[in-house]
Amino acid sequence: MEGSNLVDVLLNVQENDEEIGVSLSRNNIKAIILDMFLAGTDTVSTALDWTMTELMKNPKEMKNVQDEIRSVIGTHGRLTEETIEKMTHLNAAIKETFRLHPPAPLLVFQKYKLTN
C-alpha cells in the first residue's frame, strides 16, 4: 500500500480479513491507535522533562538555547520544521539528553540461568 499510513493499513486488514486471515473489529482498531498515541505521548513528555532538567542544570547552555530560539523565531516569525533545523544548540541539547536519558529502553536485559 504505497503512501498509506497506519490507519489505512488497519482499515485494509479489516476490509480484507478473510484474505489475510486476521480479523480486526472497529474497537480493535481504536485500541491500537490509542496505544500508539499514548506510547508516543509518554516518550515525548519524558524527553521534554529531561531536556528541561538538563538545561536547568546548565544555565549557560539554557541561555544559548533561549537566545537561539529568540533569534530564529524573530527572523522567521514562526516555528516550522525548517526553523527547528536551524537551531543547532537546541538540537544538540536534545540529542545529548537522549544520550543521557533515553525515553525508552534501547535494549532489554534478561537474566539467564545455566542448568546442567
UniProtKB/TrEMBL annotation:
Extract the InterPro entries matched here: CYP450_71D, Cyt_P450, Cyt_P450_E_grp-I, Cyt_P450_sf
Recite the UniProt keywords alphabetically.
Heme, Iron, Membrane, Metal-binding, Monooxygenase, Oxidoreductase, Transmembrane, Transmembrane helix
Task: Tell me yes or no: is NAD among this UniProt entry's keywords.
Answer: no
| Pfam families per record | p450 (PF00067)
Cofactor(s), names only, from the UniProt record? heme
Q: How does this protein sit in the membrane?
A: Single-pass membrane protein
Q: Which GO terms describe its cellular component?
A: membrane
Quote the subcellular location field of this record.
Answer: Membrane
Q: Name one GO molecular function term.
A: heme binding
Q: What Gene3D superfamilies does the database record attribute to this sequence? A: Cytochrome P450
Describe the family membership recorded for this protein in Swiss-Prot or TrEMBL. Answer: Belongs to the cytochrome P450 family.
Tell me the PANTHER family matching this sequence.
OS06G0641600 PROTEIN, OS08G0105600 PROTEIN
- According to UniProt, the name of this protein is Cytochrome P450 71A1-like protein
